[in-house]
Amino acid sequence: MPTRRTTRGADRTPLSGDHDVLICGASFAGLAVARELAGSGARVLVLDRYEIGERQTSACGIPTEWLRAMGLMGSHRQTFGRLVVHTPFGTSVLELPWTFSTFDYPELCELLWAQSDASFETAKVNGRSGDVVHTDRGDLSAPVVVDALGWRRVLGSGYQPPDAPLSRGLEVHPWAVGDEMELWIDRKYVPAGYGWSFPAGDETRIGVGSFDPRFHVKDTTVMLAEHLDREPVRYQGNWIPHRLRAATDDGVFFVGDSAGHCLPLTAEGIRTALYFGIACGRELRAVVEGRQPIAAALARYGDFSDSHHWKFEAMLLAQRVVPRVPPRLLHPSIRAMQAKRFVDWSFGHYLDIAPPSFAGEPRSAVVADDLDVVAVGV
Ligand SMILES: Cc1cc2nc3c(=O)[nH]c(=O)nc-3n(C[C@H](O)[C@H](O)[C@H](O)COP(=O)(O)OP(=O)(O)OC[C@H]3O[C@@H](n4cnc5c(N)ncnc54)[C@H](O)[C@@H]3O)c2cc1C
């Protein structure tokens, strides 16, 4: 686990002041928004309770083309051309039409941050009144406020597990190598959900995700790790939203998990956080460059997110159906899906929900001379 570096005590000097854009949250979604604002001349401040890249928030699996499109291959660890799916009655291998990769979280955040020219401060965001954001280091204001703070949606209305549409995910990171990206759809690990093993260089990320927030996944995460002869060490877990929420509310832009942008069924939320972060950042760029009013950006970004509603609902339907398939039928059903035409078709559509072409041309790091960077912190 990364050691804690976030400033403490006397180093936590008071914060105040006005900015053009306040981006709350410095993980995938927040850093993608900041990247789109680079070179706009806007005073952009990014806030997070931890230093950038300090706290890993996922197993860090993503379609390889997204890493390439974003200029983030420097954080790459391993690539997989196939997906191995285990059920109690057999194993199937899906040869994918595109590859998945694992990456290193601190390195990816560092590379993404290097593409922006925003300032950064560590602060815990507590809430908002109008265009004033309250933090544990003081109040900051900006006409444009982005909530990229994850599932809690701190700057919106409350969301409490286990009643909210949230899944539960937990993984361990033993030092162990592997060759395959594997999934387990097996009720001995989780009644509704799946287990996974994602090798990433010298570590493997082994975990269990439950679509039912009431099912605790700690014991079965340990069980899966032990089944694979791996040590259940270096835990990392969180709630994962599985339903789209309004991407704008009361003048605030919500991006990534705070808007429920994580895909149901697969719980893939990194590329969608990047995708919607880029979409939001483009609208905000038009605002700070004087090409559109904030109200237009709110409307356009909200409509863009809403236009994905039916795709997210279709994935949610599949999330509800798969756990109801009797275990004996599961293996033949997945085996039938091994057919190349079906895999190409289904995974092609799946990638198209948030395609890598949306990222545009890869960016290089912003040249330091132009920066007003307070802390890169990685
Ligand atoms: C165990 C697990 C494994 C996963 N594996 C994958 C995977 O392999 N691939 C995939 O695509 N998705 C995966 N996901 C889902 C993915 O992690 C999320 O969808 C993704 O991280 C969402 O990105 P985000 O930037 O919106 O939010 P987050 O990554 O959650 O970032 C939120 C940021 O806000 C900060 N923050 C939160 N509250 C405050 C506050 N009050 N004040 C200041 N800062 C705050 C946090 O420190 C954090 O930096 C996984 C999830 C879990 C739980």
Helix content: 25-40%
Number of strands: 17
Low-confidence stretches: 368-378
Computed CA radius of gyration, to the nearest angstrom: 20 Å
Q: What gross morphology would you assign?
A: globular
- Report the sheet-strand fraction: 25-35%
Secondary structure class reads alpha/beta
Order of helices and strands: EHEEHEEHEEEEEEEEEHEEEHHHHH
Which molecules are bound besides the chains? Answer: flavin-adenine dinucleotide
What is the residue-averaged pLDDT?
Answer: 93
Largest sheet: 8 strands, mixed
Spatial sequence of strands, sheet with the most strands: 3-5-4-12-13-14-11-15
What is the number of helical segments per DSSP (H or I, 4+ residues)?
Answer: 9
User: Ends: how far apart?
Assistant: 14 Å
Can you tag this structure with a few keywords?
378 residues; eight-stranded mixed sheet; 17 strands; 26% strand; globular
Overview of this structure, please?
The protein starts with 20 loop residues before the first strand and ends in a 26-residue tail after the last helix. It is 27% helix and 26% strand. Mean pLDDT is 93; it is low at 368-378. The chain has helices spanning 28-36, 64-69, 105-113, 218-227, 270-288, 294-306, 309-321, 327-336, 340-352, and strands at 21-24, 44-48, 61-63, 76-87, 90-103, 119-122, 125-129, 132-135, 138-141, 144-147, 166-172, 181-184, 193-200, 203-210, 235-241, 248-249, 252-254. Strand 7 (125-129) and strand 8 form a beta hairpin. The strands form 3 sheets. Strands 3-5-4-12-13-14-11-15 form an 8-stranded mixed β-sheet. A 6-stranded mixed β-sheet has the order 6-2-1-10-17-16, with helices on one face. The chain has 9 helices and 17 strands. The protein is an alpha/beta fold and 378 residues long. Flavin-adenine dinucleotide (FAD) binds at residues 25-30, 47-50, 55, 57-62, 124-125, 148-150, 152, 154, 169-171, 207, 236-238, 240, 256-257, 262, 267-270, 273. Flavin-adenine dinucleotide binds at residues 25-30, 47-50, 55, 57-62, 124-125, 148-150, 152, 154, 169-171, 207, 236-238, 240, 256-257, 262, 267-270, 273.
